[in-house]
Amino acid sequence: MAENTQANEVSINMQYIKDMSLEVPHAPQIFTKMATPPQIRVDLNIDGNKLNDDQYEITLNLRINAEAEKEPLFIFELAYAAACTVKIPEEQKEQVLYIDIPQMLFPYARQIISTNLAEAGLPPLMLTPVDFAAVYRSKKAQQKATN
Predict the structure, then answer these.
(1) 111 in a domain, yes or no?
(2) Strands across the sheet with 39-50, in order?
């Protein structure tokens, strides 16, 4: 007797930059005000879109604002995405889409940010790792609070 079971599959088919922007609004004068390390604020959001039955697009949206002596040093925005195939039981999909896949994408997004800032003549920035499970739980708690 042959069993009719569907094989579980989670794969990233491609990764890509959907959008990227770097602004240094007060260059070159701001470079003379970098005697102390800049104040940095990082905002992270994760978006997911279902493309078809088992195909999804997951996007890491990062916005980094840096200030030097209370003036904007730079604003970096990155939307880094992946097209994925996710063939797993429905009850596991949300965790894979919003925790596991972002965790796989983050090192690539972090490298893109670091490289582009260095090429713009800005101080090196290596974002600290993100606890995507905590981000997911926080977002779920916010959704519950608003419902």
Answers:
(1) yes
(2) 9-23, 71-87, 55-68, 39-50
CATH number of the CATH domain containing 64: 3.10.420.10
Give the tens place of pLDDT for each residue, 46-65.
999 999 999 999 999 999 99
**pLDDT at residue 140 tops 90:** no
Tokens at 47, concatenated: 């978006």
DSSP assignment, residue 63? E
Q: Distance between CA atoms of 41 and 123, rounded to whole angstroms?
A: 15
- How open is the CA angle 141-137-96, to the nearest 5 degrees? 135
Residue at 51 is within a domain:
yes
List of residues 6+ apart from 65 with CB closer than 8 A: 40, 41, 72, 74, 75
Question: H or E stretch including 110?
Answer: helix 101-119
Helix 132-146 vs helix 101-119: angle between axes, to the nearest 10 degrees? Answer: 110
Of 4-8, 21-25, 59-63, 143-147, the poorest mean pLDDT is in 4-8
Please give the DSSP secondary-structure letter assigned to residue 36.
Answer: S
